[in-house]
């Protein structure tokens, strides 16, 4: 019987072979070299960043992979720090409904930083929905996938703070992923809020009432923004029904500098976005719960997943 056991020498040989094989396969580059990035086209831009499609082709024979590369619109030391934060957060996340981090690209001696991520060919939900026929059932599937990504993000104690259709990317007609973690913040264990001091570019029409009033961001304020995103999905991101358009309609003439004050006023009077045309009744109720004045009354993403599963059955 002892003869049946492999000798130490045999084990050692096998292990060495395994290690050789591993080192022979090309390493996954996490630092990309800028000179091998060939520009294909612009993909889009938001408040802070600009995203471009490149082919990373170090062998220069067109066999390279397609990647989406994000840079900041204005280069400045302090903003670049923001992108480094985004890179660190994205690096630490691994979920099917969150865009995959691939690496970053920095040049020695320069402040410019590039975030390299997987390329999602259909762009954001804002690009995709207006030009595609999508059933209510599919809308609810996208909504549930967003909840799954958000539930994971919250389990890591991050608040997203910028959940909106423009920041959800489409892989294909049955898979969406959350992208853009530019405003994402970590909430330390035991605390429930993140408070902002600077509030320059705020997506006010997606913000929960407590964010507008007190700049307090929490897991529950992400749920509010999800409600607005759900509204956008069910209106198929039609510009004539967009959250800003609808809020401006509710506001009437008064707008400008005091927009935030007027929105707070509308929300305090319990005015909300209208019910999208083909939105099922139980989904409308769910949306309204996400927009509850009292944070404690809003559902969690965990709860939303269960509810979507039941509705879609
Ligand atoms: P910002 O922080 O400025 O809002 P985003 O990260 O939201 O920048 O990117 C801006 C736009 O670029 C998105 O709305 C989307 O249309 C497009 N985009 C971003 N990432 C990708 C990607 N990985 N694949 C395809 N398109 C993308
Ligand atoms: Mg964005």
From TrEMBL:
The active site is at 162 (proton acceptor). ATP binds at residues 43-51, 70. GO terms for cellular component: cytoskeleton; cytosol; membrane. Transmembrane segments: none annotated. GO terms for molecular function: ATP binding; growth hormone receptor binding; non-membrane spanning protein tyrosine kinase activity. Residues 37-311 form the Protein kinase domain. Keywords: ATP-binding, Kinase, Nucleotide-binding, Phosphoprotein, Repeat, SH2 domain, Transferase, Tyrosine-protein kinase. The keyword Repeat applies. GO terms for biological process: cell differentiation; cytokine-mediated signaling pathway; growth hormone receptor signaling pathway via JAK-STAT; intracellular signal transduction. It comes from the Eukaryota. Belongs to the protein kinase superfamily. Tyr protein kinase family. JAK subfamily. This is Tyrosine-protein kinase. It comes from Oryzias sinensis (Chinese medaka).
């Amino acid at each position: 019987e002892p003869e049946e056991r492999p000798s130490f020498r045999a084990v050692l040989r096998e292990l060495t072979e395994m290690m050789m094989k591993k080192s022979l396969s090309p390493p996954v580059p996490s630092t990309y070299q800028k000179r091998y990035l060939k520009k294909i086209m612009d993909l889009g831009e938001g408040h802070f960043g600009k995203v471009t499609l490149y082919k990373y082709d170090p062998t220069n024979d067109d066999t390279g992979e397609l990647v989406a590369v994000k840079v900041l619109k204005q280069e400045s030391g302090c903003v670049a720090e923001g992108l480094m934060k985004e890179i660190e957060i994205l690096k630490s996340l691994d979920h099917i409904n969150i865009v995959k981090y691939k690496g970053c690209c920095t040049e020695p001696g320069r402040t410019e930083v590039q975030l390299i991520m997987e390329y999602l060919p259909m762009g954001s939900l804002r690009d995709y929905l207006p030009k595609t026929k999508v059933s209510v059932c599919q809308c609810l599937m996208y909504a549930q996938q967003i909840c799954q990504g958000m539930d994971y993000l919250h389990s890591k104690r991050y608040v997203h703070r910028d959940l909106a259709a423009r920041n959800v990317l489409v892989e294909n007609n049955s898979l969406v992923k959350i992208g853009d973690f530019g405003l994402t913040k970590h909430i330390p264990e035991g605390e429930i809020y993140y408070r902002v001091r600077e509030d320059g570019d705020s997506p006010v029409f997606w913000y929960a009432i407590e964010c507008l009033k007190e700049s307090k961001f929490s897991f529950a304020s992400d749920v509010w923004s999800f409600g607005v995103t759900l509204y956008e999905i069910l209106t198929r991101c039609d510009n004539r029904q967009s959250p800003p358009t609808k809020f401006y309609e509710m506001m009437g003439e008064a707008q400008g500098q005091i927009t935030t004050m007027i929105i707070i006023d509308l929300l305090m009077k319990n005015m909300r976005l209208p019910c999208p045309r083909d939105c099922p009744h139980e989904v409308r109720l769910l949306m309204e719960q996400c927009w509850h004045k009292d944070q404690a009354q809003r559902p969690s993403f965990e709860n939303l997943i269960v509810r979507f599963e039941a509705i879609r059955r």
